[in-house]
Structures are given as C-alpha cells and as structure tokens.
Amino acid sequence: MSNVPPELQYTKTHEWVRTLADGTVEIGITDHAQQALGDLVFVEVPEGGRTVAVGEPSAVVESVKAASDVYSPIAGEVTLGNPALAAEPEAVNNDPYGKGWLMRLRPTKGAATAELMSAADYLKLLQTEAA
Amino acid sequence: MGRKTPLFELHQELGARIVDFGGWDMPVQYSSQIGEHHAVRRASGVFDVSHMCPVDLKGPRVREFLQHLLANDVAKLKRPGKALYSCMLNEAGGVLDDLIVYFMTESWFRLVVNAGTRDSDLVWIRAHSGNFNVEVIERTDLAILAIQGPEARAKTVSLLSASAADAAMALGPFFGREIDGWFVARTGYTGEDGFEVMIPEADAVRTWRELNAAGVASCGLGARDTLRLEAGMNLYGHDMDESTHPFESGLGWTVAMQPADRHFIGRAALENITPSRQLVGLLLEDRGVLRNHQRVVTPAGAGDITSGTFSPTLERSIALARVPAGAVQQVQVDIRGKLLNARVVKPPFVRFGKAMIETGVNA
Fold first, then answer.
1. Which residues of B touch A (CB under 8 A)?
2. What's the pTM?
3. Which one, B71, B94, B159, B200, has least CB within 10 Å?
C-alpha cells in the first residue's frame, strides 16, 4: 500500500502540495505515482522565475517505460526546481515526499487552485482507482 | 481480458504488474525493471515468452517449402538442431514477421513466431503450404521460458539430470535439441548467453519456481525490451512491419539473394528496390530519453525513432531510428519541441555485458 502523509494536500492527478513556513509551496508526485511509473531515469524541472498556470504541465518525469507530465496544482511563480534530480532522478522513487520534491513556487495571490484533497480523501481516491 | 500463458497465475503471485502485449496478459515487471535488466547482464534472469508460438512444419518437402516461404535460406541449415533468423515477407517485400527456424530433421522444421502475428502468420503459412504437402502444427501445448545471462546456462542445467545437463552444455550458439522431453536451444533476445526452452505446459510453473530457487531472477517484458534494444535487435511492429522492407529495417543481412534462382516470396519486389531509408542506432548526447515516434532531423531530411529507451547498462538514452539513406553522423531529435543532439552509432550498443559503443561525450 502506498504511503500518504497526513499533513500534505493532494490532487486527482497524483501530485502532492506542502505549504512551507514562508508561504511558498513545494510540489511533488505521490508514492502511488512513483510506483506506477517505475524506475525514474530522467526528470525535467522548471527554471526559477517561470510563471505557471493551474493545470499547466510544469515538470516531466520519465521512467524507463514512458514520459509523464506533472501538472501544477497552483498558479504562481516558480522559485526553484529541485536541482538535485538531474543527477539523482531515483530520489523521486526512493523519497517522493522528501528529497524527491520537484518544484517550489510562490502562489499568485487570489488565483484559483486545482481542487486539493486531504490525505483521507486521496486515500479514498486510490482505493476507488484500485477497485 | 487477454490470452494467458500457463504461468499467468504465478506471475500474479510473484507480484508482477500485468500489461497487454499483442493481445496477451503478460508481466511487464516484478519489482524493478532496471533491477531485472541488470540481473540478466550480470547474472541470470528468466522470461515467460509462452505467448510466442512454436509452429512445427512436417513433410518430405518441408525444406523446399521454407526456401519459398522465407527471405533467409534454410539451405544454410546443414546440421540438425541449427537455428536461423529470417523475415517472412509478402509479395511486396513487406515484413509479415521475423522468426527463428530450427532444423530438427529433414522432414521436420520448427518455427517460432511472434505473439502479435501468430494468427495471421498461421493463415499465411497454411495458404502457401498446400503445394508442398506440408503439415502445419501450432504447438499450443508448449510453454517457452527464456533463461538469459552469463550464469543462465549453468543455473538451467542444475535442474537437469547429469546426462541431460551434459547434452545441454554441449550445445553450440544457435543450436537446439530435444533433451528428455524438453527442447533446449542456445538462443535469445538479450545479447547475453543463455537458453530458450520449450517445455510441456504442465512443467512450466514448477520449472520457474526451481529456477527462482537456483537464483535466477523473474524478469518481465520491460527488461526484455531494454535488453533487446541494447543488443541492437529489432522488435516486430516497431522497427519493421508490413509497410517496410528488410533493407530499410537493418535486416538486409538476413535476406539471402543468392542463389539467384531461389524464388522466395517478396524476392521480385526486393530486386527492384533501391532503399531510400535506413535503420540506424542513435546515442543521445544531451540529457533526456529517446522514445518511439520522436522526429529525427538529419541533413538529408527527416526520420523517426522506431524504438527508444533509457539504456540501464550505458546509463544513456539509445534508439533505433529510420532516417534517409546515406552517410550521416550527427542528427537532432525533437523531444517536446526541443531539438537535442544525437550521434549515429552502429548497433549493438551492448553485448555480453560490455558497452560496444563509445559513450564518452559531454552529457
């Protein structure tokens, strides 16, 4: 069963969102998503300064099998793409909620966000998808 | 719901992720695709390839029939047990399938054809066999296991009696023979040494478990694909199909145009073809992953990637691509709108665990 930390928020497309102390947010893909993708071999993260819209493909994670887009759940300006993933894409497999984070962004004030779920609701979604 | 091999339930028990492959429910990976890939390059792994189909051809004129049916020439098969790789072409020279043919006896040859084409192959073979009075027997009673890797042969024969083990170890490359009710062949699709064994369905699960117990890793079709691509081997339906001929598919070496009076199906078309395209190997010099259907830009015009992946052995991305004919050394590949640099290389990329191409570039 995949790991779903209770303190994070989630999207239907299997991203997670962590709100940091300075008001910026950190975004990654869930344990379920990394398991489904398999061994990651290449990760493309956005550059700092780029503005992203809700639902915009903002990062790409590639396993041996396939390339998948990662959609930004929140509109904002990218403050940092995780620089460590160029050399160590497998961090997304090994530590999806920690070292495997993909990008940080400063949300646009008042902008719409994708529908974010609690950990409990995301777990229910996973159970529905598995059924 | 797809077709299932006798090992389907065991794959599920072993935790495999199951995918559709040519209408069959097959294991794509058990734990880690890269881990399974390395197991085969460094030690040994076992693949279920029972979705492929052995077809026995019997009759006094079977060799003559195969000289008509296949683009390679079974006259090359002089010693019983010897295997030959060949394309089966249509009249236009398009590739209907690629297959292995084994010379069992002068009145019995065995083909092994691909899963996705087995039904159409059987129709084609039967339609052409009548004039030669050849009996065509689809062997649905056999499971096929491919045991591959530097330790594969030793691990496999550890399951056999001493005399059977000796017989199996004595097989030369690309030879097979029946040993105690198994057909054991020293063939494969990984670029490593090993065996492909055709065994009664009832033996399949027990044999797989015994191989696991001997230290042979369960491997899925995901690792099979990265291994064959590193080995520079074509995959039917990706690198060639009915719409392409062997000369633009890197398979000219498998077409026997001599002797000139052997009238195999597709020969007349091939004689009139000057290939305008070629299949080449690519090594991506920039960071990223080459994938099927990405556009390739060359000085002589555009082409397409037919098979692309990340090579776990080289830790670089590699591909086969169909590009305009002629000498070309550097190309660019369109990956999500960016043109990335790739170098043309001669496959295989990897053979017997060793890199066969120079990868020393600025990544």
1. 28-29, 32-35, 222, 226, 287-289, 291, 309-310, 312, 317, 336
2. 0.93
3. B200
